[in-house]
Amino acid sequence: MNISVIGTGYVGLVSGVCLAEKGHRVVCVDIDPHKVAQTNQGIPVIFENGLEALLKKNISSRFNATTDFERAILETDLSIIAVGTPFDGDQIDLSYIQEVSRQIGETLRKKHAYHVVVVKSTVVPGTTEGVVLPIIEQASGKKAGSDFGLGMNPEFLREGMAVEDFMNPDRIVLGGVDERTLDRLQELYRVFEGVDIVRTTPKTAEMIKYTANAVLATMISFSNEIGNLCAALGGIDVVDVMKGVHLDKRLCPIMPDGQRIIPQFTTYLEAGCGFGGSCFPKDVKALIAHGKKAGHPMSLLESVIRVNENQPQQVLNILKDHLPDLKGRRLAVLGLAFKPETDDMRESPAIPIITQLLSAGANIQAFDPVAQDEAKKLFGDNCITYCETLSHAIAGVDAVILLTRWEEFRKLPDLLNKNDVPLILIDGRRMLDKQHFARYAGIGM
Ligand SMILES: NC(=O)c1ccc[n+]([C@@H]2O[C@H](COP(=O)([O-])OP(=O)(O)OC[C@H]3O[C@@H](n4cnc5c(N)ncnc54)[C@H](O)[C@@H]3O)[C@@H](O)[C@H]2O)c1
């Protein structure tokens, strides 16, 4: 199939490259000429494992990028909208979606062949039919469901695992205004054999995406609230508590041969310094705002956000227990992005933590295997020393703060125990075994 992807960011670029790898012909469109030029040179504008190799493999043959919106629509059969939907504090900002819908509509006015438009951006329930549809109909003079197809296909990829997730989806959710749209979407995804497909309305597809993110965010904040209570009560470690909870056979079933299944969702039932990234905070806040507008305030989700926003402070409180005056102290901050394997700094817990450390007069030696350039854009070059290696980051510091679960940090017991005077590790993710450290503190203990 000939596909155009509008918006060449995390979702657009990964979707475009992976759909090309699966055999479709793809053109990715962006308004940023720098992004387009770099993409066409085979250099992804974001870091994702395996993305560069797939981009280089498919470029020119089945994949290319362009700023020529109109041509991309005219020369393809199906367009995927993957532009940003940031939360503006009151609601999701649909201006990018609206602009793209208008441009698509104006182009469809000039096109005779049937075209399908699919919203992949995360949008609140009702957006595809209530916002995108009327704009395209008005700009094109055509009718959705007969002259053109319109659908909603939420994306569930996880940053850091984006290529792996897109190439091996756990589900494909297709919302369509009519059967013909749904059939086209199913044809698009025929290359992903054997995957569970949900065929539904656009509104339900939109709701599935928000609900999927909200349940995971809720599990994280629940675990953090329990962790904070463990710390307040004293003498209880949330890691031990959660180990006991996970062994419930309804969470981790026991197979007939006695083996345990450990589902991945149990990793969301662990305490830490909070969730971040471009999705969970934004999507939960958007759902809360949408609920309020619908006359249904969502008090549970409001608490999920409140707990999360307070969680970076827990790390600072633990640090202050050990170093009451941070002025002039040298601190290693390990991990800058909101999770490992990504350079995405959006809503990373490291941002409020570093900001407070700097304003308390601390000197920071930071290390993140891939996110340092993004961090420099936020904090600048001067106030933080960005270290090339883990060993450099912990050299000469008064304390080490771990904020991201990078596998490389498993070397820390060896590195820290080498010191004559053992350094304290503040484990903001409860990633490492406290038994392996002479001095250890963490969330939830
Ligand atoms: N990042 C994720 O992990 C993730 C996962 C699932 C869903 N989503 C959702 O997908 C959507 C996109 O997220 P993202 O992280 O890829 O955003 P992004 O900011 O990385 O990318 C958006 C891109 O759209 C481009 N753009 C804006 N206006 C345009 C226009 N008129 N024409 C062409 N291009 C235009 C921007 O230049 C940018 O490159 C959002 O709704 C997000 O919530 C994101």
Structure description:
With 445 residues, the chain is an alpha/beta fold. It folds into two domains: 2-200, NAD(P)-binding Rossmann-like Domain (Rossmann fold, 3-Layer(aba) Sandwich); 215-442, Rossmann fold, CATH 3.40.50.720. It is 42% helix and 14% strand. The protein is built from 16 helices and 14 strands. The protein has helices spanning 10-21, 33-40, 51-58, 69-74, 95-109, 127-140, 162-167, 179-188, 202-233, 238-246, 280-293, 299-322, 350-359, 372-379, 390-394, 412-417, and strands spanning 2-6, 25-29, 63-66, 78-81, 115-119, 148-152, 172-176, 197-200, 330-334, 363-367, 384-386, 399-402, 424-427, 440-442. An eight-stranded mixed beta sheet has the order 3-2-1-4-5-6-7-8, with helices on both faces. Helix 1 packs across helix 3 (51-58) and helix 5 packs parallel to helix 6. The longest helix is centred in the middle third of the chain and has 32 residues, at 202-233. The protein starts with a strand and ends with a strand. 46% of the residues are buried. The model has no long low-confidence stretch (mean pLDDT 96). The chain binds nicotinamide-adenine-dinucleotide. Nicotinamide-adenine-dinucleotide (NAD) binds next to helix 1 and helix 5.
- Summarize the amount of helix as a percent range: 40-55%
Total count of helical runs of at least 4 residues: 16
Structural class: alpha/beta
Kindly report the average pLDDT value: 96
Can you identify the CATH class of the largest domain? Alpha Beta
- What is bound: which ligands? nicotinamide-adenine-dinucleotide
Please give the CATH architecture of the largest domain.
Answer: 3-Layer(aba) Sandwich
**Percent in strands:** 5-15%
Please mark out the parts with pLDDT under 50 across 5 or more consecutive residues, or reply none. Answer: none
Number of strands: 14
Any idea what the CATH superfamily of the largest domain is called? NAD(P)-binding Rossmann-like Domain
Nearest-angstrom radius of gyration?
24 Å
